[in-house]
Amino acid sequence: MLSAIAQATTTVRLGTYVLNAYFYKPALLARDAAEVDLLSDGRLEVGLGAGYVREEFEAAELPYPSAGRRVDYLEHVTTYLKEHLPSIPILIAGNGDRLLTVAARHADIIGLTGASPKAAGDPLAERIDFVRAAAGERDLELNLAITAVPSDNSEIPDLRLTRRYAPTLSDAELLELPAVLSGSPRDMADRLRGYRDTYGLTSFTVQENHAEGFAKVIAELR
Predict the structure, then answer these.
(1) Within 10 Å of residue 180's Cβ, how many Cβ atoms?
(2) Dihedral sign (CA 206, 208, 209, 215)
(3) Cα dist. 148→74, 95, 161, 199, 218 in Å?
(4) Cα–Cα distance, 159 to 154 (Å, whole number)
(5) Quick one: which of 104, 149, 152, 182 could link to 213 by a disulfide (CB 3.0–4.6 Å)?
């Protein structure tokens, strides 16, 4: 799919948000990434995660390892790619301390997932401070995954996807999460500008089914 998109476009950046690193042999992933990067004239961005959905492992007929082993393997894949394909940016997405430490040390872009919904204070700011402390002098980009965007001219988004990550929260609490956008396109654009100014976020990732609704937000941001 990415190879076809690479050949059909000239300027848009291509990304894999995100691959379950545990499903890949580093050398084979590097081979495929190098091919797409070549076809796209250097427009590829490799997005990786540690994998957390047990059903995905079961479907792939793979054992479900501990969180520690998954993060260790993610680090192994990441360092291999950085050594053999240093020009390709790597994004690592997640929320836990250990994963974000790996991301801060090795990734070019940190994919933030909205922080812990029940954390006190400003949980997104806390996660960003944690990443920056772990990164030391490294210069990182910050990305936020958006899990809900209104559609069909509604100002309230479908919260089913977000509820998968925070099943105990009420609708009102879900709407307060950084990853959830609501209101008019202008309201949402203003909120994203606020994220940029407050947290230093440089990019956002939306789900494919939110593309049409988010296009209206992009129009307000231009």
Answers:
(1) 23
(2) positive
(3) 27, 18, 7, 20, 15
(4) 13
(5) 149
List the one residue out of 128, 102, 101, 103 whose CA is nearest residue 114: 128
Tokens 């925070």 appear where? 166
**Cα 18 to chain center, whole Å?**
7
CB 175 within 8 A of CB 163: no
First and final C-alpha spacing in the chain: 29
Report residue 35 as tokens.
């091919």
pTM, 2 dp: 0.93
The per-residue pLDDT for 161 is 84
Q: How far is it, in rounded angstroms, from Cα 157 to Cα 216?
A: 14
Distance of CA 167 to the CA centre of its chain: 20
CB-facing half-sphere around the CA of 205: CA atoms within 13 A:
21
pLDDT in tens, 152-207: 778 899 898 888 878 888 899 899 899 999 999 999 999 999 999 999 999 999 98
**CA angle, 150 as apex, 125 and 116 as ends, to 5°?**
25
Question: Beta strands 90-94 and 109-112: pairing type?
Answer: parallel
> What is the spatial distance between Cα 76 and Cα 121, in angstroms, rounded to a whole number?
34
In 13-165, where does DSSP find H-type helix? 26-39, 54-59, 67-84, 97-106, 123-135, 160-165
